[in-house]
From TrEMBL:
SUPFAM superfamilies: Metallo-dependent phosphatases. It holds the Pfam family Metallophos. The chain crosses the membrane at residues 6-23, 35-53, 73-93. Keywords: Hydrolase, Membrane, Metal-binding, Transmembrane, Transmembrane helix. It comes from Microbispora maris. Residues 127-148 are annotated as: Disordered. Signal peptide: none annotated. This is Metallophosphoesterase. Residues 207-375 form the Calcineurin-like phosphoesterase domain. PANTHER family: PHOSPHODIESTERASE YAEI, TRANSMEMBRANE PROTEIN WITH METALLOPHOSPHOESTERASE DOMAIN-RELATED.
Length: 436
């Protein structure tokens, strides 16, 4: 109920803000446009709730129906909110200037009225012609220039400002989401990352490890998504392939056919997998996917390690389970994965979440490969990721127990979660080249 309550609260608060800024401020009271836009916003808010809550309980069939409109509106809602906050300052400045101009005009007219009394002759002439002065002629007896600011009521000017601001917000959000969709559904970027390891045997220098994470097979992806990733990885001619978690968002029965292209992964020393948090969210749990991947020729590393022998040298490749396995007794076990090994050998660790690097450093790991963050996926959301994870994307290092540093590389992931939108964080497949 905590997750559901948080989602409902966020949906209500953000939609109320959007209603006040984009609907109420831009329409007149009682107008048909206000009623229509209000009900449209209510319907979209309900769609959000169904997307997040209903699909989790109703299964993949319902999720496939609501996922596209629901998640696209989530992205639009997010950027409408972001652009709305950005426009608060210029909106406030424009409103202040309009109000100031109105006060200045009112004071000037008042002062003019005191300085120039009413011309009795003008009044008498007006009375003789029907009891009123000519249109546009003030009580001072002098005609008022046409086309001045006084011709437009102040409330109209404020309405114009609100409508202009709303148009800018809507256009900015729509353009950003449109761009983000093309990035999310396009080819991942190939990032080539050289990493120097002080304990690496020079004979092993040049060993290449392909890293892919957060593929997120689910209701918005098809088999072509997996086939493209496999094709791009094979084109790298890597010595080893590593999948560092969040492969799926569903059960084997629902998504198994989408994963079958993984059988075609090519590398000299094999393909390896560790669990991510989403493997623990599926109805069948991670074990069914562990067995499915074994049948596809991908070896899971469940708190264990293997030896990679290359050019007469040896490297340990280890993997630990994700932190979300802790409640079910299937969490990470660094002692089991790394205990009893030759401390003179370099070790590369697969761990889904970057935050696990602290334990990795305590166990003398040379390099940790992680995912999980998506690089923030939709900027400026990346600023919030730093509250939970030490690294959002790229290469970083932390002090290692016993001296030296443990390096951690965080890939942005090859897929997406939720909205099929990526802004400022394009999908990625990484080729890490180890160097002595």
């Amino acid at each position: 109920m905590g997750f559901v309550g948080m989602i409902l609260t966020a949906v209500v608060v953000v939609h109320f803000y959007l209603w006040r800024r984009l609907v109420r401020a831009s329409t007149t009271p009682g107008s048909r446009s206000r009623r229509v836009l209000t009900w449209v916003l209510v319907a979209l808010a309900a769609l959000m709730v169904v997307t997040f809550v209903g699909s989790r309980s109703a299964g993949m069939d319902v999720e496939r129906v609501v996922a596209w409109p629901g998640y696209l509106w989530l992205a639009m809602m997010f950027y409408l909110f972001v652009f709305g906050l950005v426009m608060e300052v210029p909106r406030a400045v424009a409103t202040f200037l309009v109000s100031r101009r109105r006060r200045t005009t009112a004071l000037a007219e008042g002062a003019e009225g005191e300085a120039a009394p009413v011309d009795e002759a003008v009044l008498a002439g007006a009375a003789a012609q029907g009891g009123s002065t000519a249109p546009g002629t003030p009580m001072t007896g002098r005609p008022e220039p046409e086309g001045t600011a006084a011709d437009v009521p102040a409330i109209d000017r404020r309405l114009f400002i609100s409508r202009t601001a709303s148009a800018v917000v809507a256009a900015g959000a729509l353009a950003t989401v449109g761009y983000g969709v093309t990035r999310a559904l396009g080819d991942p970027v190939i990032e080539r990352v050289p990493v120097r390891l002080s304990r690496l045997d020079p004979r092993m220098s040049g060993l290449r490890i392909a890293v892919v994470s957060d593929i997120h097979l689910g209701p918005l992806t098809g088999r072509g998504h997996t086939e493209r990733i496999v094709r791009m990885i094979n084109g790298l001619e890597a010595d080893a392939v590593t999948i560092v978690g969040d492969l799926v968002d569903g059960t084997v029965a629902e998504l198994g056919r989408l994963a079958t292209p993984l059988r075609s992964l090519e590398s000299r020393y094999g393909a390896y997998f560790v669990t991510g948090n989403h493997e623990y969210y599926t109805a069948g749990g991670p074990l069914e996917w562990i067995e499915e991947l074994r049948s596809l020729g991908v070896r899971p590393l469940r708190n264990e390690r293997v030896e990679i022998r290359h050019a007469g040298a040896v490297l340990d490749l280890a993997g630990v389970n994700d932190l979300n396995g802790v409640p079910s007794g299937d969490g990470p076990d660094f002692d089991r994965a790394l205990g009893g090994r030759d401390a003179n050998r370099p070790v590369v660790l697969l761990a889904h979440q970057p935050v696990q690097v602290t334990q990795a450093a305590a166990h003398g790991v040379d390099l940790q490969l992680s995912g999980h963050t998506h690089g923030g996926q939709m900027a400026p959301f990346n600023l919030l990721v730093t509250l939970q994870q030490p690294v959002v994307a790229g290469l970083a290092s932390v002090p290692r127990t016993g001296g030296g540093d443990t390096q951690v590389y965080v890939t942005r992931g090859a897929g997406f979660w939720g909205p099929p939108v990526r802004v400022g964080a394009p999908p990625e497949i990484t080729l890490v080249e180890l160097r002595a």
